[in-house]
Structures
1.
Amino acid sequence: MYIKRNYGFWMTFNWSKKPFILGLIYSLLIYGASHLIDFHIYIPWQPISILGIAVAFYLGFKNNSSYDRTWEARKIYGGIVNSSRSFGAAIVAFVKGAKSDEVKKELVYRHVAWLTALRYQLRLSRPWEHKEDRLTSKYAPTVCEAYNKSLDQEMEGFLSPEEIQGLEGKTNMATQIMKNQSQRLQELRDQEYFEDFRHMELHQLIFSFYTDQGKAERIKNFPFPRQYASTALWLTLLFSLFVPLGLLDIAKSANGWIYWICPVLSALIIWVFFLMEKIGDYSENPFEGTYNDVPITSISRGIEIDLREMIEDKSIPAAIQDENGFLL
């Protein structure tokens, strides 16, 4: 996620320059042919402007829907933050008895392991995502291949070797970690580290974690309907093909530099529409690890810091800092 006040113009243009360049080349070919070989095929601007209004409305619908997916993802992780803090406070307050400090640390560390496993799972690539555009400083395009090795290295700091071994081969590691947490809470209740009422309160928090995980997985595993995404792209392309011909209708009576300004104006119009389409396209998948996604790595680290401070742990990691304005 980009966290500075504004994207710079040249940063935005560099990200989306391909439609402008192709639109300029296409427009110059049309205007050059019209000028050199008396090629005067043009279309009245009025119907093209009506088509442009329709495309703009459709792009607005797509962008609103894409934004809803991103905002929902952020709300889901906001819920995880709140529930995690409640879980940490409950562990500190409820767990009493022999070796209670070790038990608190175990439960908190297992919860951080769940956050880590969930984050890695949400970063895995899907066929409809922009795998080639991941933030390569943190997430390489081959993140799927590095998943198991990198995750195991992080898990070693939070789970016992036996528990890590028990997770091998599981389809959904985060789900299994939370299952282990639930079983461990029952064992602690049987050992009278807390009574039934407090055990049920902790189990309700486990339920909330599963609920938020399921919501995040719903967004991750169900793409923005491709019929809407594809239609927006093709309508934008169709409109762009007509733009130079429409401006040629206006420029046909002009001479000199005014005539040659029209290809640049055509390219600008094409660029604006494709920029709107691209913004929506890159907002559909809020967990894919690109420029505009939800910074779940930073959020997870913030939760880890809060929980480990609650149990007065040592060697607490620092918060994740942005790199060139990008926060992961």
Note: The chain is about 70% helix and 0% strand.
2.
Amino acid sequence: MATEIVVPALGESVTTATVARWIKQQGDTVAVDEPLVELETDKVTVEVNATAAGVLSSIAVPEGAEVEVGSVLGVVDSTGAGATPKPVAAPKPAAAPEARPAANPAAGINPPPRPLGPVSRPAAPAPQHAPLPAAAKLIEENRVSASDIGTGTGKDGRVTKGDVLDFLNRPAPAIATPVAKAARQDEPREQRVRMTRLRRTIALRLKEAQNNAAMLTTFNEVDMSAIMTLRAEYRDAFEKKHKGVRLGFMSVFVRACCVALKEFPAVNAEIDGDDIVYKNFVNMGIAVGGPSGLVVPVIRDADQLGFAGIEGAIADFGKRARDGALKLEDLAGGTFSITNGGIYGSLMSTPILNPPQSAILGMHKIQDRPVVIGGKIEIRPMMYLAVSYDHRIVDGKEAVSFLVRVKEGVEDPRRLLLDL
């Protein structure tokens, strides 16, 4: 019996993926739930497992190709036979299969069956099919014309999301002339590598945030003395009680943000058309560096968690990001984000929004600086804070006041325990 391998549901707002790597090759024996192929989405890499044991008799889509949810990737033959014949192709005479190799340039890869017909007869050009849904959305958002992109790489020439991304990343026409391309010669010491799907998506989303939001950043600084003293005093007891969960700074900042977001709900809201959607909960996105780039997993209902729950979630996200084991659902549904450039040594920066969120907090390096305390100059561990916000929904007064509340919570953690 033949079992088709199909592209599974890929998560919120994700309709296409790229075939990154075939783990099994045609003719390999596979077991139930054994990984067959890796798909790369805009957010994470997903493994597709075998739903039946047998032999991988057919690979329908090569590596690097873009596929939609529900598309057939290949076939597993549970009888252990070689290539599985397709029902529509079996009754055809020998003449028809002889014409197939001309339409199958990838050796060892059998394409999905197509209705057989006279292939040698000249025909009029096929009508232009509508772009795929994800491609149509990008076309609309970037105000480009499908006719400018031309024939796509999808089935029947349909324009895919990857085609739109490639089009948007092309150089300007004045630069992309044959003469200019011929003049650009790569040196032997250079290496040209195609951007990954995740990196292209990061670039597109960050540019989208700059183009669509009225983005502004306000700054403040926070004295880290109290939180550092608290951590030094209770670190061992905290770790012992919570079974290895370490007490860090991030949980204090998350709690401080949750308290401030309740007071200033616009910072936790989003724009949907002509409406403002206010969230009566906090799904906190924490920016984490992974092997393929920056990802933002989400701590759901962070406002309902204590310090230990927050620290445990952050540690788990960090480990899974390094291992490439984050799932699509881990990255969806954030209402506010925090990014910490200080772990890389950044002293100050202006973080970019993570659409459709309306604000993001940027943490930075802790540095000893002279400050005036009670009329005297003292050396204190200080950190610059930055909050970037969408001025279409958040006023300057709200953004500044929000950042002041975060500062107050971090400088006096007792306020967080008392919800002040």
Note: Residues 129-172+196-212 form one domain.
3.
Amino acid sequence: MSEPAGILVGYARCSTDEQDLTAQRDRLADLGVAEDRIYVDHGLTGTNRARPGLEKALAAVRAGDTLVVPKLDRLARSVPDAHAIAGELAAGGVRLSLGGQIYDPADPFGKMFFSILATFAEFEVDLLRMRTREGMKVAKANGKLRGKQPKLSAANQRRLCQMHGTGEHTITDLAETFNVSRATVYRVLAAAGAAT
């Protein structure tokens, strides 16, 4: 592997607001990236290409520069996206450093290794999604995941229908009385079969 040329621009990302970027920032500093040249995205997944920090990092690099990321999964979590970003960088004469290893798109072994890393990053995301769906299914079966709760209690829904049935209250009156939107009033009436 040859030494990076030009300016080093760093990129770090974490998926949730609760996660900390300190370890990634420290790794980028260890790789020679100046603090003022590190761009970050906080609370954005790697599957989302619309990331302000990534856009700024990509805009900051010029031909001869190197984009440095601690690991490939910080840059992209899908194979097509990883290849698209790497292709854009290569087309612009920008090198890509993955944790200190320079990715060379002209090297067949480098391309294969990059594709394997991207495949594993995507596989990780797919596993996470599958586990989340399974967890939600179990929670729902155990009564711990109930979904969105109605805006009105069952008693208030009955009262709303009764008031509407008298013909003395408009939909707007009912919405104001129960502090809900007109759409909610219509939904309650429709569910009760009383909508007019």
Note: The chain has two domains: 8-125, 154-191.
